[in-house]
UniProtKB/TrEMBL annotation:
Pfam families noted in UniProt: FMN_red
EC code: 1.5.1.38, 1.5.1.45
Protein name: FMN reductase/FAD reductase [NAD(P)H]
An annotated Gene Ontology molecular function: FMN reductase (NADPH) activity
Stored InterPro entries: Flavoprotein-like_sf, FMN_Rdtase-like_dom, NAD(P)H-dep_FMN_reductase
Record-linked Gene3D superfamilies: 3.40.50.360
UniProt domain NADPH-dependent FMN reductase-like: residue ranges: 1-145
Record's keyword terms, sorted: Flavoprotein, FMN, Oxidoreductase
Length: 186
């Protein structure tokens, strides 16, 4: 099983810090799970123009392939102007819906106001619903105050939510995989 963490921004580093924290927690408790971090700032991704995803080349093709072949996801974004980043929205637009169908997603958001956590409920979960993905019931929202001056996540309650999210996505993925196996053998 492969868990892909996505840092859905081309600027800043707080989402990457929290996504990496979840991936580290999963790896520590489930060494059999392969984890990978996809940081959008490391790639030169084209804007989606409506063509078949298989026709993209270069970094765009590489990113589409990385996302499409993962088994489940931790997706993080900063909240800008009350919304997810354009870079993350573009990534969602590039992926064919069938490639995310029936896969587990866990969400992380970071922001400068305490109300921005609502973006997870009002934007990210509906996008997952469109893809017919399974969404972990918990999520992690980290305010700027939850980080140290060195950009480390230090808030105890947020760290507890990181642990809870890491456990939820693994539990859901294992249950989904077991149910698929049971269906195939019956």
């Amino acid at each position: 099983m492969k868990l892909l963490g996505i840092s859905g921004t081309i600027t800043g580093s707080k989402p990457r810090v929290v996504v990496q924290q979840v991936l580290d927690e999963v790896k520590r408790n489930n060494p059999e799970i392969e984890v990978e971090l996809l940081d959008l700032k490391d790639y030169n991704i084209q804007f989606c123009d409506g063509r078949n995803p298989s026709t993209y080349t270069g970094d765009t093709k590489k990113v589409i392939d990385i996302v499409s072949t993962a088994d489940f996801y931790i997706i993080g974004t900063p909240i800008f102007q009350g919304s997810i980043t354009g870079a993350l929205k573009n990534l969602f637009d590039l992926i064919h819906p069938k490639d995310l169908r029936n896969k587990v997603m866990g969400f992380i958001a970071t922001g400068g106001t305490y109300q921005h956590y609502l973006v997870i409920e009002n934007q990210l979960k509906p996008i997952a619903g469109y893809f017919r993905a399974f969404v972990a019931p918990g999520f992690v929202y980290a305010h700027n105050d939850h980080f140290s001056p060195q950009n480390e996540l230090v808030d105890k309650e947020v760290l507890e939510r990181v642990t809870a999210l890491s456990e939820e996505v693994v539990l859901m993925q294992k249950a989904l995989k077991a149910s698929k196996s049971a269906i195939q053998f019956n």
